[in-house]
Amino acid sequence: MKIMVAVKRVIDYAVKIRVKSDKTGVETTNVKMSMNPFCEIALEEALRIKESGFASEVIVVSMGPAQSVDTLRTGLAMGADRAIHVDAPATLYPLSVAKILKVLVDIEKPGLLILGKQAIDDDCNQTGQMVAGLLKWPQGTFASKVVLDKEKQVATVDREVDGGLETLCLDLPAVITTDLRLNQPRYATLPNIMKAKSKPIKKVTPQELNVEINSDLEIVHVTEPPKRKAGVILSSVDELVDKLKNEAHVI
Ligand code: AMP
């Protein structure tokens, strides 16, 4: 069985985001970019499944401009076998990503498609659900545990939901999206970084895949959140209760 993993190049989680002066988006020039943290978890899970003998190959896919290849190289250095770069604009919306993934799945026929539960740049949390819909595959989103049964060809997925944990049993092939507690992704070792340089990266365009990438969405403007006001130190519980009642109006 093959496993396909979608990995997105995003602004590194530790970078302080700056909004562009014309409010059209956030500044990405000279900003450190990395693999989306939830995608690292998705890839780690795929690698563990391969190491357990359940899968034969892990393919990483990224869509975006030429620099997305750096993200794919990171994925190959972590242990993926090969990569597909879909040469596309940086601002791709989830439905376009889902349509492209569907075509790639139709070509590669993986038994599992694993994505991050969300990309930390757009926080959409839509792509996994959309591609599962397009493929008509079962989906286990926000996975915190994945157990595969080779004989029955099913995946048992624990999902983190508001009220606790929900356990689903999915027939393969299936889509899984990963939550934070699923695993701790590995670091790429130096020898593996060197090996990754000779692993294959195939480049395709959305046109070659017959996918139109226009969107019905338009970003009107992007603004910074309001600055947090300085706090105050209160001298008594009575004063706190008074402020909560008469200023914050929360009790
Ligand atoms: P989103 O729905 O935008 O929050 O993204 C959820 C997941 O979809 C990400 O964690 C990735 O696994 C995948 N994804 C979204 N955009 C891309 C992209 N441009 N390239 C590869 N994977 C992507």
TrEMBL record:
<dbReference type="InterPro" id="IPR012255">
    <property type="entry name" value="ETF_b"/>
</dbReference>
<dbReference type="GO" id="GO:0005759">
    <property type="term" value="C:mitochondrial matrix"/>
</dbReference>
<feature type="domain" description="Electron transfer flavoprotein alpha/beta-subunit N-terminal">
    <location>
        <begin position="23"/>
        <end position="213"/>
    </location>
</feature>
<comment type="similarity">
    <text>Belongs to the ETF beta-subunit/FixA family.</text>
</comment>
<dbReference type="GO" id="GO:0009063">
    <property type="term" value="P:amino acid catabolic process"/>
</dbReference>
<dbReference type="Pfam" id="PF01012">
    <property type="entry name" value="ETF"/>
</dbReference>
<comment type="subunit">
    <text>Heterodimer of an alpha and a beta subunit.</text>
</comment>
<protein>
    <recommendedName>
        <fullName>Electron transfer flavoprotein subunit beta</fullName>
    </recommendedName>
</protein>
<keyword id="KW-0249">Electron transport</keyword>
<keyword id="KW-0813">Transport</keyword>
<dbReference type="InterPro" id="IPR014730">
    <property type="entry name" value="ETF_a/b_N"/>
</dbReference>
<dbReference type="InterPro" id="IPR000049">
    <property type="entry name" value="ET-Flavoprotein_bsu_CS"/>
</dbReference>
<dbReference type="InterPro" id="IPR014729">
    <property type="entry name" value="Rossmann-like_a/b/a_fold"/>
</dbReference>
<comment type="function">
    <text>The electron transfer flavoprotein serves as a specific electron acceptor for several dehydrogenases, including five acyl-CoA dehydrogenases, glutaryl-CoA and sarcosine dehydrogenase. It transfers the electrons to the main mitochondrial respiratory chain via ETF-ubiquinone oxidoreductase (ETF dehydrogenase).</text>
</comment>
<keyword id="KW-0496">Mitochondrion</keyword>
<dbReference type="GO" id="GO:0033539">
    <property type="term" value="P:fatty acid beta-oxidation using acyl-CoA dehydrogenase"/>
</dbReference>
<dbReference type="InterPro" id="IPR033948">
    <property type="entry name" value="ETF_beta_N"/>
</dbReference>
<dbReference type="GO" id="GO:0009055">
    <property type="term" value="F:electron transfer activity"/>
</dbReference>
